[in-house]
Input
Amino acid sequence: MISLIQQLFRSLQEPTTAKRYRDAGIGLAFTVGNQLVVLPIQITLNLHSINIPASILVMLLCLFLMVVANYIHGGTAELYSKHIRGPTDFLGRHMSYGFVASFIMLNRDHISDAIAVPKIAGVFLVTTLASYACSFLVAWGSFDLEQRVRGQRTKSFDLESNKSWPSPSTAWPTPSTDRASKPLSHLSRISVALVKNGSLTSIESTEKVSTPQFIDLIVHTAPLWICVLLIGVVGIPAYFATNYETPFEVLCFILFWILSVQFQRSLRNSCRLLQHPRLRSTLVILTNPVMISWALGSAYLWIKTAYTHHTIATVVTEFRRHTTLAEGMAAILGGGSIKNNIGAGDLSGPVLDAGIICLGFKMFEYRKELWESFTTVLTTCALLAIANVFLNVMIGRAMGLEAADAIAFAARSVTIALGVPAIQNLGGSTTLMSATVIFGGIIFQMAGDWVFSLLRINDRACQQNIDDGGSSNGEKIGDEKESQKITRVEGGEIAIVAAGITVGINAAAMGTSHLIERDSKATAYSALSMTVFGAMTVALTALPGVSGSITFLASR
Output
């Protein structure tokens, strides 16, 4: 037993594992700590009826402060690289968890008219395809023109060698990379033998006395066991002591997310599926963590409905009582009780806020590239915002949607934090608008890798890598400089910029989160365009003349 404990601590002290859990710990602390800034700002904005999400403002503030600090002291970039990037990438990878609660709400706010479902699906398909094609072409042409004006046509990226992004959790694996994993593992054993024993003859014995496989399994699945432990030690006792089920449900939904991520990762690293790379890729795509978490969460709520003999609408309302956590906190400050204002779904918002704020750090990381394409981002977002606001409503109405549902498509792909206030001002269906945003993000997460491969957009900062033992960070395989050389030949700066802008406009925060997982250099363009496009849409819909025109088009 003592030997196993020693091996466990030795495994936890490995540099890669220690860094992974350190980044996760800092990221979780930031998720809680950012609310100390976001909540007061959001409550103040709500009191003054300003429909702007505080997380977006804080994100821009972080970007501004980082740029100013780097201008004053050049070591800011190095400080970010050493201490901030790891937690930022952790939050970026798991930002999509913040959308699970909104997806769960569809169990209550569903479309009751069966005839409306195919109409909505048709409008969503038409507007999505048109928007993707138009935004990509406009961004491509605009950036090409901007480069001509700047006199820097198709200049290759100048990326620092320290810009190493986290390993993707979903990818379209190539057989060559998979076949390289076994020799690399042998090389790793050779290195261990040489360091510890100084002789190649001890390789076999080193392999036998190495950390047992189940110790590695425990280390790499520690979040799962920690969550189960917290449910037993905190969640269940808190429920029986206070009759308040939110702590228990929060831990349950975190457990659902961890299970979903671990299940997808196990499929990606499955040795049996290595011989069928296409099948493995298909299974990885279909096991999207947001979809799996939504299915598990919905099943939990329906079981709770049967157990409590309440309606599903009541159970879902208790799960998420307010649109934002700030609304719940304002109600509590006004004399309301925590039980009646804070549900498990309300506490998913801080994860999304933390992820959005961290996008400001990503934009700081690629500030030079963003500055060189800023005109392209503004031009593309402006044109697409105007087109989406008017044309989507006209298409929806022409295909037979009700006025409220047609208006929802005015912000079809605007991130929920910005889109909900805009649609509320227009009198549209915020439920349908949220559903279109989530489905749009999920579709890109599931099909984005295939589309990038089809268009030959080689946007990754380094070659496809393999996780050693399921590590979320993984080990970078191959030489990064060689990888960047390949990117310069096959990727093309224009294609990467256009792809990033297209994803930001059409897949918003979920698409940006997937680009982080994809190890993509288009992430910064996606984050900036997501923000600019959403802000322009909100600004347009707030203008009296524009809002009146949208209402008129939807009522025709």
Summary: The chain has a mean pLDDT of 80. The CA atoms of residues 441 and 507 lie 5 Å apart.
